[in-house]
Amino acid sequence: xxxxxxxxxxxxxxFVALYDIGEVLACKGIAEGVENSNFLxxxxxxxxxxxxxxxxxxxxxxxxxxxxxxxxxxHGVACAVPVRAxxxxxxxxxxxxxxxxxxxxxxxxxxxxxxxxxxALGTALAGLHKAGASFRMTRRNDLSLxxxxxxxxxxxxxxxxxxxxxxxxxxxxxxFFASAWPSxxxxxxxxxxxxxDNVFFRDRELSGLIDFYFACTDFLAYDLAVCLNAWCFEAxxxxxxxxxxxxxxxxxxxxxxTAEEIAALPLLARGSALRFLLTRLFDWLNQTEGAMVRPKDxxxxxxxxxxxxxxxxxxxxxxxx
Length: 321
Prior knowledge:
Elements lengths: L8 H8 L7 E6 L7 E7 L2 E7 L9 H13 L17 E3 L2 E7 L11 H18 L12 H11 L10 H15 L6 E4 L8 E4 L2 E5 L6 E4 H12 L9 H14 L4 H27 L13 H11 L12
Antiparallel strand pairs: 1-2, 2-3, 3-5, 4-5, 6-9, 7-8
């Protein structure tokens, strides 16, 4: 989450007046993340999240995200739910941006990842995939192979400003995946961005999932690979086998993986690392002046990508094959 667009008091009051959530008591920008402008909105009826959609979120995709959150919530997934205005619409415009209000989830995202967090995440991710199986809308993953190539093209000329030789290394990765990316794996709705700051806990219990604005239709095991990258590396860069076993083991207990999915995990994890390396690199090189946002280090994902290059089989992650 982040803030790129400031909202005037009069504009905010007029916008909220379209909903049955009472008068605005407070509205505070949320400075985490990198994609949209997010605000903690407090009204007479409680707390909500107000989002203005920026950057990579296309207006045409917003009905997919809104419908998906509604669907998942109605199928038992603990996630934020869009709030509809009196006219029944969940999507409106505010300050020249598409905007929506969603319900507030209690809990905090874990600053220090413990093994029990990974176990709970595995169960929740499988539940999301199973609930999404009956969702009929589809959306292409714009940040898969073609998206990586576009991002690389936008960053190549300046990539070596971040680290010498980075442009050449990225070019080699793009070329590798053009022929090596798997096909035919089980597909469905995936979150595609399930980092710790998008997962809330209360004590040791997972209380909710947020930020579905990269959700799309893709390999289910790719979602698991994203989580391996986001949850199973320590601050010093070491891969935590115990966390990976709990994440994947609890996922498999709820949704068994095929042999092909298990075999593809090293490639999917490597591709996931490339995806986040490229988006972070782009954001690092194209920071918005004055935005209340903290750009994330792209080199963290370069180190992860290099780690995955050395993994030939899922067993290299400590995962039963």
